[in-house]
Write a structure and sequence with these properties.
The chain is built from eleven helices and eleven strands. It has helices spanning 21-37, 48-69, 107-117, 119-138, 159-169, 183-188, 190-203, 219-224, 247-261, 274-283, 299-306, and strands spanning 8-11, 42-45, 73-82, 88-99, 103-105, 144-148, 177-182, 206-212, 229-232, 265-269, 287-289. Strand 9 (229-232), helix 9 and strand 10 (265-269) form a beta-alpha-beta unit. The longest helix has 22 residues, at 48-69. The protein is globular, with a radius of gyration of 22 Å. The protein starts with 7 loop residues before the first strand and ends in a 5-residue tail after the last helix. 33% of the residues are buried. The structure holds ligand C2E and magnesium ion (2 copies). Residues 92, 148, 180, 210 line the site of one magnesium ion.
């Protein structure tokens, strides 16, 4: 057989900061991984920028490990609502990190490190537990809370058992919890993913497919997996315009039609402007989530906003 090879190479030059031979190897390894990230079949020199980024990763990892034991991670909640009536249907839990020096951090500031190091799983369980604690309050204002499930969980045979045990411990009815999974989670673990989602679905938990439209957007996934809801990724909304020639409008209309014909709820994510909202209404999309309606906020602020009497 003819073989095609695409080597990824990392190169580190000896530098005064190196004390031991292993440190040069470590740096070349970091450069090698960058070659892989950049698409393989290339070489990368370990330079100051890579050094800085490796240091940052180390710092974030150290801080994150400490954060796990210091209650610095907690959920914000963003309403998902009926676009016309503005009735809040549920809340998505979005992890936040109250960093002792850097202030409030968003997932974009730390989720790469959390995923690389595997800490995302522990973080998720911390968030899930807080959601269970907050749910009785949230249920005064809506029907459910939705949690994001990192692809790594679908690699654990006992994920569904553990989640069901957690909600039982807190006396939460499965119907009051949604989980959000992305297509890449299912692509990574198709069989175990199917088994776990089916188990959760049979127990009564609703399943949302998150960020639809960014990945493979596979129609086969839509009917194969036991889904309840399709969340249209916010990237579509940036180019949606109420005009007959607007291609995004046609695309979103088509995605909505597929979702509805498969019996799924359809939620548009990331709605920022009145124009986007009116496009969605014109298409017939009932449910939306976005800064136009409500930004993610701490539970106290959600209560003040939606239920001022109780705050
Ligand atoms: P996602 O699940 O798709 O969540 C929606 C993201 O869109 C949130 O970003 C939300 O703040 C943002 N968003 C909502 N409305 C608007 C809008 O109108 N404009 C813009 N520009 N953004 C809007 P966030 O909170 O930064 O979270 C980013 C991603 O991090 C989430 O995307 C999800 O994939 C992940 N994530 C968040 N919380 C968790 C968690 O507890 N566990 C795991 N595993 N992942 C999480
Ligand atoms: Mg989500
Ligand atoms: Mg999303």
């Amino acid at each position: 057989k003819e073989l095609f090879i695409s080597p990824s190479i990392g190169i580190a030059m000896s530098h005064e900061r190196h004390q031991e031979p292993d440190e040069i190897l470590r740096d070349s390894d970091i450069a090698l991984y960058r070659s892989k990230e950049l698409g393989r079949n290339r070489f990368t020199f370990f330079d100051d920028a890579l050094h800085q980024s490796a240091l940052n990763t180390l710092i974030i990892e150290g801080d994150l490990r400490r954060a796990l034991t210091r209650n610095e991670l907690f959920p914000f909640y963003q309403p998902m609502l009926n676009i016309s009536s503005k009735k809040v249907m549920g809340f998505e839990a979005l992890m936040r990190w109250k960093h002792p020096h850097r202030g409030l951090l968003l997932p974009g500031d730390f989720s790469d490190v959390a995923k690389e190091t595997g800490l995302i799983e522990q973080i998720d369980w911390i968030i899930y537990e807080q959601v269970c604690r907050d749910l009785p309050v949230l249920l005064n204002m809506a029907d459910y809370a939705s949690i994001n499930v990192s692809p790594r969980h679908l690699g654990h045979d006992d994920f569904a058992d553990r989640l069901l045990a957690l909600i039982t411990e807190y006396g939460i009815a499965p119907a009051n919890l949604n989980i959000e999974v992305t297509e890449d989670a299912l692509i990574e673990r198709p069989e175990l993913g199917m088994k776990l989602l089916t188990q959760l679905k049979l127990a009564g938990i609703r399943i949302n497919l998150d960020d639809f439209g960014t990945g493979y957007s596979s129609f086969s996934y839509l009917h194969k997996y036991p889904l309840d809801c399709l969340k249209i990724d916010r990237s579509f909304l940036s180019t949606i315009v109420n005009h007959p020639d607007n291609k995004t409008m046609h695309l979103v209309r088509a995605i909505h039609a597929v979702g509805v014909s498969l019996g799924l709820d359809v939620i548009a994510e990331g709605v920022e402007t009145d124009e986007q909202s009116s496009c969605l209404q014109q298409i017939g999309i009932v449910l939306g989530q976005g800064n136009l309606y409500a930004r993610p906020a701490a539970i106290e602020d959600i209560c003040k906003m939606l239920n001022p009497a109780s705050a």
